[in-house]
Amino acid sequence: MKKALSLLIATTALATPVIAEDLAVVGSWSSLPLHKQYEAPFWGTTLPEASGGKINVELTTHNQMSLGLGDIYPLLGQGVYDVAMTVADYAVADAPELEGLDVPLLALTADEARAMVDAARPMVSDIYRDRFNSHVLAIAPYPPQVVFCNAEIANLSDLEGLKVRASGRMTAKLLEALGAEGVNVSFSEVPGALQNGVVDCAVTGAGSGYSAGWWEVSTHLLPIPLGGWDSVVTAINMDKWKGLDADTQALITEQVASGFEDPAWDSAQDALVNDIACLTGNGDCPAGEARSMTLVDVSEADFDRARDILTGEVLPDWAERAGGDWAERWNASVGQVVGVTIN
Prior knowledge:
This protein is of the alpha/beta class. The protein has 2 domains: 14-141 and 231-266, 3-Layer(aba) Sandwich (D-Maltodextrin-Binding Protein, domain 2), CATH 3.40.190; 145-228 and 285-298, D-Maltodextrin-Binding Protein, domain 2 (3-Layer(aba) Sandwich), CATH 3.40.190. The chain contains 13 helices and 11 strands. The protein has helices at 2-15, 33-50, 72-77, 110-132, 169-177, 190-196, 206-211, 238-243, 246-266, 268-280, 300-322, 326-332, 334-338; strands spanning 21-27, 55-61, 83-87, 134-140, 145-149, 163-165, 181-183, 201-205, 220-222, 232-237, 294-295. The strands form 2 sheets. The protein has a 6-stranded mixed beta sheet. Mean pLDDT is 91; it is low at 4-16.
């Protein structure tokens, strides 16, 4: 009898299906390469398959949900959805200390940008835990944020007096210090703003501008990374994270690094070269038809001037707004990597 009962219990256990974890995931801009090439394949296929059916994902994007950009992470913290990813700069109104993640002009290559991100990650993790009740899973790049202008420019000084859409608050401060007028325009509204003269120039990633058709309403491309690399943070609601067993946490952590974050970084540098070729016709365009924007040379004098303004005005201004010991933490981490100290 005992043997039959043991056999029945074992058979029942084998027949009991594994209860799957359901994740409601909100991705970044659906039209841009980061989502199409990395986010959607990872959350839609890679992670569910790696889990052996233990994880089910329902994926949408914040623009498909018509979410306010500043609401994405607060709603994540409230548990409206389980996972969200978007540009960290969208959250700086709630967390000004987060501006220290994506500082313009300090990284000119993908390797340099990733070194900055890796140095900043402990700070970013603390910010998301304390501000948004979230656990950081990944930080991935858009390509460097360059300048599209529907005006004839030949150098950085020509931005003086122009109305420029910035990609983040620190970039806006830098533009204002250069004599430009920073204008707040959402990404989706930029083409109309350029066409109608609401702005003369706008900052975004070269690939993002190509995908969104900014080349139709702008003539000149200034490939100086005035907007940094527009880091995209992927985070999971902290209560959801703590509710997962250790094996599931380990699986997600390993898979998001190898299946999403690493590939996105690996392609970032080539993406910039290819995107500029696609926008200007200077080289082969693997993404489609090359356009004919005028490529503006960035002189060493232009770059040095922008860096001086960044280190002398913009970073100290951020340190004051962030308050606390954030400047000290930044100096001891990111600052050490890039050789910059905020005084």
